[in-house]
Design goal:
The complex is a heterodimer. By secondary structure, chain A is an alpha+beta fold. In chain A, about 35% of the residues lie in helices and about 35% in strands. In chain A, strands 1, 5, 6, 7, 8 and 9 form a 6-stranded mixed sheet that branches. In chain A, a hairpin with a 5-residue loop joins strand 3 and strand 4. In chain A, helix 3 packs antiparallel against helix 5. Chain B has a 5-stranded mixed beta barrel with strand order 2-3-4-6-5. Chain B has a 5-stranded mixed beta barrel with strand order 9-10-11-13-12. Chain B is built from 13 helices and 22 strands. Chain B folds into 5 domains: about 80 residues; about 90 residues, Nucleic acid-binding proteins (OB fold (Dihydrolipoamide Acetyltransferase, E2P)), CATH 2.40.50.140; about 100 residues, OB fold (Dihydrolipoamide Acetyltransferase, E2P) (Beta Barrel); about 130 residues, OB fold (Dihydrolipoamide Acetyltransferase, E2P) (Beta Barrel), CATH 2.40.50; about 70 residues, no CATH class. The chains are: A alpha+beta, B alpha+beta. The interface between A and B is large, with 57 and 48 residues.
Chain lengths: ~190, ~550
């Protein structure tokens, strides 16, 4: 198992995932893991998301293939589960909406006819959770996102030790960090007790 | 062997730079082959070489350079002449100082000559290596490897040698030199007295700082340490004398004592004074290695090792295989697979419950093992009930499913002892609520951050406003009324902003289709008015409007 490490489940809000369209592999091999690079410079293969399951649809023709929408305070995640995600598909088949769920999954990309890259999530696990878990996730995701923004901003000011991911993200997206800061506040508002 | 070929080819190309296949050239090649052979004591006739070379080049269509090389080799073999001897020194090796060699990491496989003193000889790990150690001159120190198949006399410590045709290798960014068959080593007449090598030669007497386990968190630290052996592993390798876990008041870590240290007696629960050990990192874990340089003596002072207690919090993102209802071998307590123990074969086995959960905090994933007792209370299920459940459903995996459903996606804090890979849980707590204090702090931080930008922005807006007013003042005509009407509209807008604010508007629109919607949202988000400031903003507008009315 030399060289094996578990991909960390990166925390990001739906808006950030939706704004992302930079997909790459670090190695040429067919089975090399695929990563996305988000506007705030997060490099992610696996992500953790938590929110409200709002819609489940079986879009498969012969086999069962589910599309579900999970809403967080900033937007919606789209997840797809088919025969190779049997546990998740079973969950979605029986799921009630709305319901708090948490998903551990891999980001997958699809290139649309118009050349746009569409990202979705292929769940490894989808589980019913509670509002508390969702709020912890929001707080955690807000914190991690803000940390990434601060790091990127400090890199804009001082380019002496550039982080390659941040550099690529800045070049690709020219992100408006104010937008993401507002997004963070808006999300935190939902997780606040008052 | 590839290294050899390189020198050979260089040597050949040197004598025959033109590679055209005409007969004159062919003749020259044969002559040059003859010359090389005769220099090495093999007198071969022109015709004999010609037959061989022609066979290769014409019949087998071997490229001429390769044919030439092959011909030489076949005759050398026939006359039993060592290839190494023939080609030594034929390359382009330059004589270099060690400091310059150390800068050659970008040109690996280069050939160099050097003069160096053997300042250290290490215990070699492999039979194919004759000697390994350090060479030094007045400019630097470099690691060398003398391969067994080079067939050379071993070098002596503290002697200076002239090395010819050694290969510069890089490994992990570090430069070292390889002495293989093509090289030659001669005892140098000139001795290097002042070597640039710190640390001296008698490693066993080297003085190190005495550190504690918690300070040994960097690869390559040489250290002294007083610690108690708390665990000894079963020996896995013939060159390892002992391996296990040691600890002091600050924590625990793995250790390996190599056979080369000559240490023969280590006992569990005894405290030892260790000198000259080195810290090695592997996969983020540190271990202490005691090799030839190291020394261990029993200490009179007793140290009670404190296990490293870890506390990690995170979301349970995976339940690993081997969780749930398992069977252990009654002999050795190891987990059995399909009713078989790896050591004791088929056994009846006794049931056990455990959870191997991966907690992920967004920075790192922690693998935890939760024992039977904790698992029972977490699942509100006793071992007996679990066994019954598995028997009734005919599916031992049903417990695993139960665990997955109960755990994944939820947040936990696990306290426990960290081993190599796992954290053995002693206490597992579910985190049910978000930390409101943390949320509040973060909110304030981001708000202040945004406020600063907002202030800068508003100042610019305000300046623009003043300009508009000035324009109105100087340019008072019927058209101005229209402008004022617009201002009034602006006022309404401002009030509207106060009512709705940024967030409610956003909330009302929680779902978006991919691209088109995204644009709208972006426009919407880049609007300068936010909840933080609409009131002051509105006041400003109002003030401007009253100013204007006065004016009219």
């Amino acid at each position: 198992m030399a060289g094996y490490f578990r991909e960390i489940a990166v925390r990001m809000f739906a808006k950030e995932l939706r704004d992302s369209d930079l997909v790459y592999r670090e190695e040429e091999e067919q089975y090399a893991p695929q990563y996305i690079l988000t506007p705030t410079g997060a490099k992610a293969n696996r992500i953790l998301l938590s929110g409200v399951l709002t819609e489940v649809e079986n879009i498969g023709n012969d086999t069962e293939y589910y599309r579900a929408r999970i809403s967080d305070p900033t937007g919606t995640f789209t997840i797809y589960a088919g025969q190779y995600q049997a546990e998740s598909a079973r969950f979605l088949a029986e799921a009630k909406t709305p319901e708090f769920v948490t998903v551990v999954g891999k980001v997958t990309s699809f290139k649309a006819d118009d050349g746009n890259i569409l990202l979705s999530v292929r769940p490894e696990y989808i589980q019913k959770t509670e509002e508390g878990d969702r709020n912890i996730w929001i707080a955690e995701t807000a914190e991690k996102t803000y940390e990434r923004i601060l790091e990127a901003e400090s890199q804009i000011e001082n380019e002496s030790k550039p982080n390659e991911n941040i550099k690529n993200a800045l070049d690709h997206y020219s992100p408006k960090f104010d937008e993401y800061k507002k997004m963070i506040l808006q999300a935190l508002e939902i997780a606040s007790a008052e | 062997m590839t290294n050899m070929n390189q020198t050979e080819i260089i040597g050949l190309q040197n004598s025959n730079p033109i590679v055209t296949n005409n007969s004159a050239n062919f003749e020259e090649r044969i002559k040059s082959i003859q010359k090389i052979l005769s220099e090495n004591g093999a007198e071969v006739s022109f015709e004999e070489i010609e037959i061989k070379l022609k066979e290769l080049a014409d019949v087998y269509k071997v490229p001429i350079a390769e044919a030439q090389r092959s011909t030489i080799h076949s005759f050398l073999k026939k006359y039993n002449i060592s290839k190494a001897k023939v080609f030594t020194g034929k390359g382009f090796a330059e004589t270099k100082k060690i400091a310059d060699i150390l800068l050659m990491s970008h040109q690996p496989d280069s050939w160099v000559n050097l003069k160096g003193r053997v300042v250290q000889l290490w215990e070699n790990a492999h039979e194919s290596i004759a000697q390994v150690g350090l060479l030094s001159d007045e400019t630097g120190v470099v690691k060398f490897t003398l391969w067994s198949n080079a067939g050379m006399e071993p070098m002596e410590l503290n002697q200076t040698y002239d090395f010819k045709n050694v290969v510069v290798k890089t490994w992990n960014g570090k430069v070292n030199i390889d002495v293989n068959k093509a090289a030659s080593i001669v005892l140098s007449e000139e001795k290097i007295e002042n070597v640039r090598f710190e640390g001296g030669l008698e490693l066993k007497d080297k003085k190190n700082e005495e550190r504690t386990v918690s300070q040994l968190n960097q690869d390559g630290i040489w250290t002294d340490l007083k610690a108690t052996v708390i665990q000894l592993f079963e020996n896995t390798h013939e060159s390892i004398a002992f391996a296990g876990v040691l600890g002091d008041e600050t924590g625990t870590m793995r250790f390996t004592i190599w056979k080369t240290s000559g240490i023969e007696d280590i006992q569990i629960e005894k405290t030892y004074k260790i000198s000259n050990a080195i810290v090695k990192e592997w996969n983020g874990n540190f271990s202490l290695e005691i090799n030839r340089a190291g020394k261990i003596e029993e200490s009179e002072e007793k140290i009670v090792a404190k296990p490293t207690v870890f506390e990690v919090s995170g979301c349970a993102v995976d339940i690993q295989a081997g969780s749930g209802l398992i069977k252990r071998c009654p002999e050795c307590n190891k987990v059995m697979s399909k009713g078989l123990c790896a050591e004791h074969g088929k056994q009846k086995g006794k049931y056990d419950l455990r959870i191997k959960a991966v907690l992920d905090d967004g920075n790192k994933a922690y693998e935890t093992i939760i024992n039977c007792e904790l698992t029972q209370s977490l699942l509100h299920l006793s071992l007996e009930e679990a066994v019954l459940m598995a028997t009734e459903t005919l599916d031992p995996d049903c417990i695993t499913d139960l665990i997955k459903n109960g755990f994944i996606g939820k947040y936990y804090t696990v306290k426990g002892i960290k081993t190599d890979r796992y954290i053995i849980a002693e206490c597992v707590k579910r985190t049910e609520f978000a930390n409101q204090i943390k949320i509040k702090e973060l909110k304030e931080k981001v708000e202040t951050d945004l406020q600063r930008i907002e202030d800068e922005f508003n100042f610019k807006e305000f300046e623009k406003m003043i300009e508009t007013v000035a324009e109105l003042k100087s340019d008072f005509n019927p058209r101005a009324e229209n402008k004022i009407k617009n201002k009034a509209e602006l006022k309404n807008e401002a009030e509207f902003e106060v009512e709705t604010g940024f967030e409610t508007e956003f909330e009302a629109k929680p779902e978006f289709e991919f691209k088109t919607e995204l644009k709208n949202e972006t426009e919407f988000e880049t609007k300068p008015e936010t909840k933080e400031n609409p009131e002051t903003e509105a006041k400003r507008y109002q003030k401007l409007l009253t100013d204007d009315s006065e004016l009219i």
